[in-house]
Design goal:
eight-stranded parallel β-barrel; 15 helices; two-stranded antiparallel ribbon; 2 domains; homodimer
Chain lengths: ~450, ~450
């Protein structure tokens, strides 16, 4: 089978670009409109996307803009939203973000397993550690945990969740009305986890789905983040401005995975891409300029501060001057470095910098024709920089419609993208293996040894 | 407006009666079938029920039967399930159970607020403290917290959630594309909660719904439970075998609420009722006997142990002899007392006891014609024993269909039940007031004082 590009779609109802809600095309109440999210899911499925992807935060202020200018200040919790969207679709996957720092593994395992059952095997969990003191203060703390502690807890959290997802073997359920045997207790297993952060006996009271368990997704860029991703992730969401750094990241993750005994083909690397699509270059540039013109100065400045973990208070600086230095952060370390890299490489003023990152917050922005965008995606895909992409349409629904109607057909013509879903589950469509239950087959072995 | 009976429907896909899954009518995989739950929701809405209600547990073993005989051993998490069902209905409410002991208030507030937005104002939260050491062991503990501690934590948890639900005032969102003002920061409020169990700064990143916030439901029967219910609940689910105890409970709760300055009409008392409906008495009795005959002895014995907080290990006892004494429990204190009361009053053997409680686990079981069932409900409703009822159909979908097709029309003929939904939200249909945001109107007052 020829290798195909995998595609995720980031579709927050409040829009991706910081000023998207001000665009005439975008419904101003999109963030809290279930009907709007349903329309986006149906369009993503029409475009044969692998999955609908949503970020998440556990505090107001997520997104970075000036307080009163942030359209993503309030919205749905992603797992409940995806549960509601799943029955209206049949093949689209749903990857929701949830925190390892502020949830208990039993609850995490349970809500994702439930989403996986409701969608009949189309769920994914984007594992995040959740940064920021504002969030910590919603969970009985004054400040966030140090970076390394968050990642140690995250690794253990994922380990517990995976143990819990294997509580029932796939053939545990007998459901024999005649004999009254509903399930085989020998095929129900405790997790019996005792670790540094968690003690969880199990078992989980949700059974496995058609795809075994949800796909595990991560977005860590730091050394801790890469280590966790290489050890546990099946899909990696990553941010790069250049094919060179993307290739370095791709090689590093695949090598780390190989070193841990994993098949590197079972970790899909999907950089984020924010496309402004025009039938001509001029039309694409007009779309970019139009959206850029809607950014208010104070929102742009706030965005840069938000993206650097609250370390860049730019009030009082000349917006047409250079970016000042900033202290280190315990928050989004890698994102902070990326933002500075973009400024340095392009010799951007503060204003130019926020205009550039406003669409995708550090992800790769492409302004061009369907052919030009396909050229770039093809180049990255064929040169070990990407297994696929997470598309972040700058505004909605137009940015998504443009990609589905103009870019997807071009990718299909080139044989780079599917023309129909290959399977029913998210794993099948992503080409990821079914995760065999860790307890499966052990009974036979024990009997044979007796 | 004439006072009407309110009706909730308990519809676990795995069935209510312990042997319901063995009944020929019931789909054997109902507990994990989204389509089956959807059919139940549509039937409940056709019957004009106020709400679909689901219990919940955070450990395998919930339900009480022998391990291999329990059809409710695994299923959906209720908030995700209800999110998925809500878009297929337009008026039915959805009351999901969630634990105050094993969740953080920020997460509780968020998932219910999200369900409330998805359903456009039809969510309810059944507040439980969650009993049992097996559950505690899934959350880093060896044993459950003492009863009184659980209830203190519960009261504070509800308080924090309610503060968080008032984060955004109802008119906080301006969404002016022209000026770029999305919301008014003066109408966004911190919770600033610092208590014995929780420190939560807020605000919540989900806005209020059409009904303000979800309806708060409780089921406490003990003194601690009644205190919490009188202080915070808007609907109370309760278990009684006789109109006398139901009347005592009703008066006590309404008096406690009055004593706390609440309007007693804003707390609806809804005892559980498990109806076996027949066109004739004989047919109803046949339905009861049929289901009873499907109970396996070890499941019946396990059920009694489960219902008494694991204090009644009856293995080795003569099932046709009397119930032995049991030690006190930190778990379901009131349920333990109720089970013993049923045994004593009826002079039941162990076998007769489990047969009787198998359908509704201590709730009131009525076997009779639509007229007889309506007589009982009417008597309770008109004599200050109930404002409505939570119907627990013994098996599904037949038990629900019977109630909707035979009993509801009889209640309607008597003018006791609605013939069309009164409103769009769960609160409107229950006749509960819109909860005014605690911060509303304060700005004007401050300005006037300046």
């Amino acid at each position: 089978m020829t290798r195909k590009i995998r595609l995720g779609a980031f579709l927050p109802g409040g829009g991706q670009h910081i000023a998207s809600w001000r665009h005439p095309d975008q419904p101003v109440d999109g963030a809290v409109s279930f009907e709007f999210h349903k329309q986006l899911a149906l369009t993503a499925e029409r475009g044969l996307f692998d999955a609908y992807f949503l970020a998440d935060g556990l505090a107001v202020g997520f997104g970075g803009a000036r307080e009163g200018g942030n359209a993503r200040v309030a919205g749905f919790e992603p797992v409940t939203l995806f549960a509601a969207l799943a029955p209206f679709t049949t093949h689209l996957g749903f990857i929701a973000t949830a925190s390892t720092t502020y949830e208990e593994p039993y609850n995490t395992a349970r809500k994702f397993a439930s989403l996986d059952l409701i969608s009949d095997g189309r769920a994914g969990w984007n594992v995040v550690t959740t940064t920021g003191d504002a969030t910590a203060q919603n969970f009985n703390r004054d400040t966030q945990l140090p970076h390394a502690d968050r990642y140690r807890r995250a690794a253990e959290h994922v380990e517990v969740v995976r143990k819990l997802w294997d509580s029932f073997e796939d053939d545990a359920f007998i459901r024999d009305k005649e004999t009254g045997v509903f399930f085989d207790p020998a095929k129900l297993h405790d997790a019996d986890h005792k670790g540094e952060h968690f003690r969880v006996k199990g078992p989980l009271n949700v059974s496995r789905s058609r795809q075994g368990h949800p796909v595990i997704v991560q977005a860590g860029q730091s050394d801790d983040g890469r280590g966790l991703a290489a050890a546990t992730a099946e899909v990696i969401f990553t941010a790069h401005q250049h094919i060179e750094t993307a290739r370095e990241f791709y090689r590093d993750i695949k090598n780390r995975a190989r070193g841990l005994g994993r098949n590197p083909d079972h970790i899909l690397i999907m950089p984020g891409v924010s496309p402004f699509v025009g039938r001509t270059e001029e039309e694409a540039r007009e779309k970019y300029d139009r959206l850029t013109s809607l950014i208010l100065e104070e929102d742009g400045v706030g965005l840069l501060n938000g993206l650097t973990g609250g370390t860049l208070d730019l009030r009082g600086y000349d917006l047409d001057g250079p970016l000042p230095p900033a202290p280190p952060t315990e928050g989004m370390k890698s994102r902070q470095a990326l933002i500075r890299q973009i400024a340095d490489e392009n010799n951007f003023s503060i204003r130019q910098l926020y205009q550039w990152v406003a669409s995708a917050r550090g992800h790769f922005t492409i302004v061009g024709t369907p052919g030009q965008i396909a050229d770039t995606l093809q180049e990255w895909f064929e040169n070990e920089a990407a297994d696929g992409f997470n598309i972040l349409p700058p505004w909605l629904p137009t940015g998504l419609n443009d990609f589905v109607d103009l870019v997807i057909p071009e990718l299909q013509r080139r044989g780079l993208f599917r023309t129909a879903y290959e399977g029913r589950t998210l794993r099948e469509n992503l080409g990821l293996p079914f995760p065999v239950n860790r307890h499966a087959g052990k009974h036979a072995v024990i009997q044979a040894a007796e």
